[in-house]
Amino acid sequence: MNAVSQKPKFVVSRAEGVWLWDEHGDRYLDGTASLWYCHVGHGRSEIADAVHQQLTTLDAYAVYGDFANTPALRLSERLASHAPMDNPRTILTCGGGEAIETAAKLARKYWSVSGKPEKTHVISRAGGYHGLHGFGTSIIGMERFRSGYGEIVADTSVVPYDSVRALEDEILRVGPERTAAFFAEPVIGSGGVYAPPEGYFAAVAELCRRYGVLFVVDSVICGFGRLGDWFGIERFGVRPDMIVFAKGVSSGYLPLGGVITSGEVAEPFWERSGNPFIHGTTYAGHPSCSAAALANLDILEREDLFGAAEEVESQLDAAVRMLAEHPLVREVRSGTGAMAAVELTGEALYERGVTTADVFAEARSRGVIVRAIPRSLLVSPPLTVTWEHIDHLVSTLRAALDAVEERHPR
Fold it and tell me: Which tens digits make up the pLDDT trace of 228-245?
């Protein structure tokens, strides 16, 4: 807050396709799809028209109890039909952080109504990002998001992102009889774009089955084409117990998220009396948000942006890897989805005083938006980008790195 209060605000006033304009009329390439979510690009009139039509028909109404609305029902059924699990059920929320809360509470409640109330512990991965609500902050895999709040939710722990053995050791340390769920992103996104090792998720799924731990996939960033599939986890050939989604489901046009559960997780609540899941929020199942999501999914399918994502992945990988030879760059991570990270060297960060914010600012001054985290620059463009856009993005990022290097000589 203090840092941004000392300088003028960057006011975005307009957007179309992969481009943004600030209040002064200057144009920028949106290299992050805003915050990982604008998959179909900005300014799609089909989504605006769908929302307008819904607002003039039924603007909003709560979905508690037996209340429902047609867009929410259609969306829930459509999402469930693509979920890689048996007899799936959908719970809609207002976004990813809220969906994480829902999934974590549901995991604990599932074990409670199954006669194992002691199964409350939740394990997550280093670098994993799961939103900043209560459960999300407690299971997030980055200390900077947890520091200073004390213990919000008890019975949580974090393991290395790439070690099945470490996960098993932690389950055994906590005790399988106390471990409720394991949360993981298909590819770690905001934590730095880390793909799983070969065979990791197959081994994790088997491990969770063996020890009776619910496997919860956080597809908030990776879903709806970012990895080329509906939820991203399909790429690794496993069937989780729950999937958390948001962002690309509506391309951010209106806030929406949710949880898809397997029929097995839903069974105690749907098929048995006396087990209510007393949980919900005012705007969950919002008909106008659901209408936006349905129109967005229509675009994803009609324009085959799932297939286009594979091409974007290949083109982005080829282009961004050329930055690996830059003197300020330690590593480039790409090639698993339409996303990439460019990590700076320790020498640049800790000896020469370079920051990723420096590179971010130089790129923005040249008309390209990327995202800066402490050691890396992240890229996750809309799935509608072309090779020319990608080339422009990477060449601008190279120019930004050159400018920063010149200001911070050895």
Answer: 999 999 999 999 999 999
